[in-house]
Protein 1
Amino acid sequence: MPDLKTLFGGAAPPLVGLDISSSGVRLVELTDAGKDGIRLERCASEPLPRGAVADGNVENLDQVVDAVRRLLKKSGTRARNVALGMPPAAVITKKIVLPAGLSEEQLEVQVESEASQYIPFALDEVSLDFDVIGPVANSQDDIEVMLAAARREKVEDRVAVAEASGLKASVMDIESYAARAALDRLVAQMPGAGAGQVVALFQVGATVTQISVMLDGVTVYEREQPFGGNSLTQDIVRAYGLSFEEAEARKKNGDLPAAYQADVLQPFLESAALEVTRAIQFFFTSTPFTKIDQIFLAGGSAMLPGLLDIIANRTRISSAVISPFKGMQLAPGVREQQLRADAPAYLVACGLALRRFG
């Protein structure tokens, strides 16, 4: 079986989470704080040139490696084992049912046989893995197994980034799974541990918004919409004649003309709110669900001024910007003020770093 257990293999500490997105690379290192839970040892980010990563694909290896090397130096981490994420669109997942009581070797054979039915590529072109979920409800003779497969070249691109940066790729996860792992910690801190609550996560990235809806730890809906913070940056480029890089920098530090908020930012916020309300309506019409109890915003664009308020007002749903580090101890070197501003962008990296404890 090709590369079984390489896609979601177990983690050995110490381990850092490394999120490679279209806008930049982000690193999170967590440690066990004993009775105090988990401690955030360090987190750092480094921007990527436009086009270095596009549609989840590493297009310019050298640029990404250079950014990761700068990131490692900036963070000061000594860990060399790394958990990486694959974009959801690059991974095929399928729940299958197999007979209970099979040995590991028999499971591998059965998974490979089943995989050929669902994967539109030759098996020697994919990295394949599986995880036993547990017994099938009302059938003690069967087990439910999660099958996951990705094109080998996509996996190898990220492994190559790690190796060229002096790191060892110990875990390869799916970015949406990593985000949900980080979210699970926060839902557990809600009243009643979030039991019975329908929670919607909107990860507003540079080019794409990932939507996941969960109930009692189970994902009941997922969707991806081509909308993100780069749209606002392009609006700034057109309005003020700046380069994309300069517009992005000024967007982040607020160095824009007085009319920016009314003329550029507010129309973008209106569009963002419309995207969210449409996504919610599509969720209602395509599933049996008729309510959402809590909206969480994450991603690099989640902290845009006014975004949370307009979404809460338009949806009439309790809404909050997420911090994946809520409830964690902070190491002395972590700058708390900066963390408050940047935390929503670290959701995936934090979820990857949590694999150290998985």
Note: The CA atoms of residues 159 and 169 lie 6 Å apart.
Protein 2
Amino acid sequence: MKIALVAHDRKKDELVNFMIAYEIIFSKHQLYATGTSGKRIMEQTNLQIHRFQSGPLGGDQQIGAMVAENELDLIIFFRDPLTAQPHEPDIIALLRLCDVYGIPVATNVATAEILVKAMEKGDFAWREVVHKYKGE
């Protein structure tokens, strides 16, 4: 699976800890992340991550482009709902694209754990059907 990882500044430690906890599972998948989130995860794990720009510099939009091309299967985006984000329109656009294209997105640890457990059990087989239907 192709998985994107994003975290707002106050949630980066939480994302890093999450990735450490599930490193074995994530090591079997292609990972993408916005700049700083990806860098921090790679510093604390052995995971290889394709890094985009930081979110405010276009990283959210780069991930959104992958969603629009049906090149992502899952997004883990630990959002900080208590801090205003200067690039909020980009964040809303990314979440909208996930809804349009049916991409599961976790915005907190509880939801991310449910999705990772489902991924571990192979419950994302429906994504393979989507790819086959589109001729990928």
Note: The two ends are 13 Å apart (CA to CA).
